[in-house]
Design brief:
65% helix; mainly alpha; 13 helices; 286 residues; globular
């Protein structure tokens, strides 16, 4: 085990089901703020590997017209739920908003369930590869129970009752559903271009290869991303591991890093939860 922290010591004393909201909060804002964000960004790309999901996303035109707003809104809604908890007033409001946005579309339950599963497993897998420490069992189980509770509040049906069952579903979905489609490539390219716009000095070709370096071959093939040179893939992985090694020797974080408090490109003057998303004007209250 790497260095310990007050947050980890508290987590080890908590029950992963009963206290899942507290554990997810501690992980999100104290233990792994960078890793949680990066892993969920790549979870977004994973959802593009399924043509049934990407076709819907592509049809809205949101990614083509305003990918940054789509990213900011999704991030703020999910961050509100993770930071405030799904039982808080803010968390309930965020889930209601998310449900209203989704009700405008016909979304298959199996696709809903897959997206939900990525919120559980992508942070776990990212931390196993690039985190300053892997998640302990309490954290893995807490993530499962947290997002399962959110999924039930989203009326997602047939959510497995056990961590291992949802993990099998996640793996089987990707084996059977991931395949190349033009809609996959379009929404993935729009998201890639949004991320690269944050770093205007990075050549597009190099940026694309660097992003692809963190992906597995199945995902790259499904979204039409190129296979990066081996040397670049090793360099990207080494850089992320070096960051983890540095964090490992730093003092534990003493103040929470709240993503809901960060300045947003879409909302330079501040944001309100009711204004987020693609809900038509006049329907976003609540």
């Amino acid at each position: 085990m790497s260095r310990t922290s007050p947050a980890l010591r508290e987590i080890l004393e908590l029950d992963p089901e009963r206290d899942c909201q507290r554990i997810v909060y501690l992980d999100t804002v104290f233990e792994f703020p960078f890793d949680t964000t990066r892993s969920l960004e790549f979870a977004l790309f994973r959802t593009f590997g399924s043509p049934s999901i990407s076709a819907l996303l592509d049809s809205t035109g949101e990614f083509a017209r305003r990918a940054q707003k789509r990213y900011d809104d999704t991030d703020l809604i999910l961050s509100t739920i993770a930071e405030a908890g799904y039982e808080s007033d803010e968390g309930k409001h965020a889930i209601r908003l998310m449900n209203r946005m989704h009700r405008r579309f016909e979304i298959a339950n199996e696709d809903f369930l897959y997206v939900l599963s990525t919120f559980v497993f992508e942070p776990i897998r990212w931390n196993a590869r690039f985190g300053w420490r892997p998640l302990v069992e309490q954290e893995r189980q807490a993530a499962f129970h947290f997002w399962r509770a959110v999924g039930k509040r989203m009326a997602i049906a047939e959510i497995p009752e056990r961590y291992e069952e949802l993990e099998r579903y996640n793996e089987q979905y990707e084996r059977t559903r991931f395949r190349y489609a033009d809609s996959n490539a379009r929404v993935a390219a729009a998201s890639r271009d949004m991320f690269l716009a944050w770093f205007p000095g990075v050549p597009k070709r190099f940026g694309t290869l660097a992003i692809a370096a963190v992906m597995d071959e199945r995902l790259r093939d499904a979204i039409g991303f190129p296979r990066p040179p081996r040397a670049l893939a090793e360099t990207v992985a080494a850089g992320l591991r070096a960051r983890a090694a540095a964090v490992r020797v730093l003092p534990p974080r003493r103040r929470p890093k709240l993503r809901t408090g960060l300045r947003r490109r879409t909302y330079p003057g501040g944001w309100r939860l009711a204004e987020l998303g693609t809900t038509p004007p006049g329907a976003a209250g609540g």
